[in-house]
Write a structure and sequence with these properties.
This protein is mainly β. The chain has five helices and 31 strands. It has helices at 2-13, 49-55, 61-64, 136-139, 440-444; strands at 26-27, 35-36, 45-47, 70-73, 84-87, 98-102, 105-106, 125-132, 146-152, 159-167, 171-182, 185-196, 216-228, 233-250, 253-269, 273-291, 299-321, 324-343, 349-368, 373-393, 400-403, 406-419, 425-436, 447-449, 452-455, 463-476, 480-492, 495-501, 504-509, 512-525, 531-545. The strands form five sheets. The chain has an 18-stranded antiparallel sheet that branches. Strands 3-8-9-6-7 form a five-stranded mixed sheet.
């Protein structure tokens, strides 16, 4: 398919004059500083503002479905509170194996690594940069599958945008954005709202009296302030708020969430040295009401889960020569949870508490060996600690359990080579290691649902991965782009829920998993109005080693 299209389209596209494809597009995420995409040893996919306007999505994750190597899953469709996005077969039962950023600020919540994609308003998004593969060498814990960086609009010239969408099932979406800049000051405000009556997903012949429509209602607010000290330094303040109410499809099965994010960012650009620093703080309140089988006609218990988190980053980009760029940075993140199950029909209360702190130091160098060869190399040392682990349950003996603090560390190296054979052809190869620290949910949260006890495990080890990638980017003329990428990853101590018998599933480290795949992509811009693209991903994620030998060779669950 790839070769046939190349031969068919090459005579046509070579005759075109306008420049449309440029492998020198400036990317931030691949190396944590602005540079041409052709200099990166990892594949980078960019969803730009033009594509966003063409697709006109309701949710940001709708855009990601169009990308090779990305798997998007919404368990209950567009009424889902959360959505699972995984890169290159790094799915499974656990979330948080893909790091999601908004303007460089982590969006994965500290409890289980989830991302509330509905909280990212589409009208704010300028572009999305997707870097798959092991990039813990730059970004630390959670970047096993890769990084998705959502870059939002900045306060700019005077503009106002209003959007209205309407659909069946009494579904409406509204959005508003207004920005302006005068002198050194700039501001941007935006608002979005989505609601739907939803639908009953159960087949009509199988519906029960308790089945009702899954409703959803959410809204978000965003305020940005910017101040330019001069042409080379600026300060930005951003506040985001998101709230939602959803129904799970039964009268007594519903939830709500309030999420807030406050961040402060400073940037300064020098002749040979650039500085950037950021501080951020998040807090949210989650509540879910659960019912009980078989009739689901009363409230069984209510879960409340207030969470807090935050962090800081400081980075220096040093350009000693035109052929060399060196970056160094410090990352610090923390999060704590206090979740409580309050039972309404029995005398029982379950409370879980915990805190996690992660710190990282990273160094990265990009060296232009010759006009055609570029070497990327670096590494990151991470240290994390789990503290104040606590479980209270009326049904257990003893009722209270205090877990000891645990700490661990990891070193994640990264090595890449780029060969720019011509202006149209770029070969790239990279190798790296990555890890994911066990989340507070994995360590301390034990809960019951539908007769099954989902048990935590405070003795979990971190997941560790080694990954290799080889690919080529090829343009033909100015309108046709082809990309081919092969990847191979081996994961040790993958965290999985293992059936222990007696209605108990417990978090455990299994032996090894093997992941490999091929991504083929074609893009053709016929004109400003017509854009054709196609991509194909072939991924295999299998259990390579397991204490239960019968599971060896099986596909990982929840991973296509």
């Amino acid at each position: 398919f790839f070769v046939i299209l190349v031969f068919i389209l090459s005579p046509v596209v070579l005759a075109q004059e306008p420049k449309i494809y440029d492998l020198g597009e400036i990317i931030i995420t691949g190396s944590r500083f602005p540079e041409p995409a052709k200099n990166l040893s990892n594949k980078v996919t960019v969803i730009d503002s033009e594509m966003i306007e063409r697709v006109s999505p309701v949710d940001v994750d709708e855009l990601l479905r169009l990308t090779a190597g990305v798997d998007v899953s919404r368990r209950t469709g567009f009424t889902s509170s959360t959505c699972t996005v995984n890169l290159r077969g790094m799915g499974g039962q656990a979330r948080g194996r893909t790091l999601v950023l908004i303007d460089g600020i982590p969006m994965n919540e500290p409890y289980g690594g989830e991302v509330y994609w509905n909280a990212i308003p589409v009208q704010d998004v300028k572009k999305i940069e997707i870097v798959p593969g092991a990039v813990s060498g730059l970004y630390g814990a959670g970047a096993m599958g890769g990084v998705i960086n959502i870059i939002t609009r900045k306060p700019d010239k005077l503009q106002t945008k209003i959007g209205v969408k309407s659909g069946s099932l009494n579904t409406q979406a509204y959005n508003f954005l207004h920005s302006n800049k005068s002198g050194k000051w700039g501001y941007l405000v935006s608002w979005g709202s989505f609601r739907t009556d939803g639908y009953i997903p159960t087949l009509e012949e199988k519906r029960k009296p308790y089945d009702i429509k899954r409703k959803a209602d959410n809204s978000n607010y965003n305020i940005k302030l910017a101040y330019d000290f001069n042409e080379k330094s600026s300060l930005g303040l951003n506040y985001r708020h998101y709230e939602e109410n959803v129904n799970g499809g039964r009268e007594f099965y519903y939830g709500s969430k309030d999420l807030d994010l406050l961040s402060l960012t400073y940037r300064k650009k020098g002749d040979k040295t650039d500085y950037q620093a950021s501080l951020y703080y998040t807090w949210d309140d989650l509540s879910w009401t659960y019912d009980k089988s078989p009739d689901y006609d009363y409230i069984y218990y209510i879960n409340t889960s207030p969470r807090k988190g935050g962090g800081a980053n400081f980075q220096v980009n040093f350009h000693p020569t035109r052929k060399n760029t060196l970056i160094a940075g410090l990352d610090w993140r923390w999060g704590n949870i206090k979740t409580c199950d309050d039972y309404k029909t029995v005398v029982r209360r379950v409370e879980v508490r915990g805190k996690q702190t992660l710190s990282g130091l990273y160094l990265y160098d990009e060296l232009k060996i010759s006009p055609k060869f570029i070497l990327n190399f670096g590494g990151r040392f991470d240290w994390w600690e789990n503290q104040e682990g606590y479980l209270y349950d009326d049904n257990l003996a003893p009722k209270e359990t205090f877990y000891p603090s645990r700490s661990d560390n990891a070193f994640s190296p990264k090595l890449g080579l780029v060969y720019q054979a011509s202006k149209q052809t770029t070969w790239r190869a990279s190798w790296g290691q990555a890890f994911r620290a066990p989340t507070l949910y994995d360590l301390y949260r034990t809960w019951q649902y539908w007769g099954t006890t989902y048990a935590s495990n405070p003795d979990l080890n971190p997941e560790k991965m080694s990954s290799f990638e080889l690919g080529v980017d090829q343009t033909f003329g100015n309108r046709f782009l082809g990309r081919l990428t092969y990847y191979y990853s081996e994961v040790k101590d993958l965290i999985y829920s293992v059936d222990m018998g007696g209605g108990i599933k417990k978090k455990q480290n299994i032996g090894k998993a093997e992941i490999q795949g091929l991504e083929a992509e074609l893009q053709y811009k016929l004109s400003k109005e017509w854009f054709f693209f196609s991509n194909y991903t072939h991924n295999i994620s299998r259990i390579k080693e397991h204490s239960d030998k019968e599971l060896e060779g099986k596909f990982l669950t929840y991973t296509p």
